[in-house]
Amino acid sequence: MTLKPAEGGELADRWQTLPVEQILLLRRHKNFLAPLAPLVDQLPAGPDAEHVRTWLLVLPHLP
User: Fold this and answer.
1) Would you say 62 and 30 are in contact if contact means Cβ atoms under 8 Å apart?
2) CB-based contact 40:59 (threshold 8 Å)
3) Predicted confidence band at 22 (pLDDT cuts at 50, 70, 90)?
4) Which of 50, 61, 62, 63 is 20 to 30 A from residue 24's alpha carbon, by CA?
5) CA proximity to 23, closest of 52, 53, 3, 51
6) Contacts of residue 19, Cβ cutoff 8 Å, sequence gap at least 6
7) The whole model's pTM is what?
8) How many CB atoms neighbour CB 21 within 10 A?
9) Is 13 within 8 Å of 61 (Cβ atoms)?
């Protein structure tokens, strides 16, 4: 993950206006995160799990 959730959310809000490279970056994040969605409740408590949960809030907004 090269972006923070806040950065991803901000870019996702205007993804249609972004250069192709940034759209592809958002897609890579979405493709990485999507398989984690059904597993999030099985992650051990901790900062990594919270990071994933935060990203999953952004997931529906990614292209």
Assistant:
1) yes
2) no
3) very high
4) 50
5) 3
6) none
7) 0.88
8) 7
9) yes
H helix runs in the chain, sequence order = 5-12, 20-33, 47-58
DSSP state, 47? H
Confidence (pLDDT) at 28:
97
**Please, which residues have CB within 8 angstroms of residue 41's CB and are 6 or more apart in sequence?**
none
3-state DSSP assignment of residue 4: coil
As a whole number of angstroms, the distance between CA 63 and CA 60 comes to 8
Contact between 57 and 4 (Cβ < 8 Å): no
pLDDT of residue 34: 95
In angstroms, the CA 26 to CA 11 distance is 8
pLDDT band at 37 (very low <50, low <70, confident <90, very high): very high
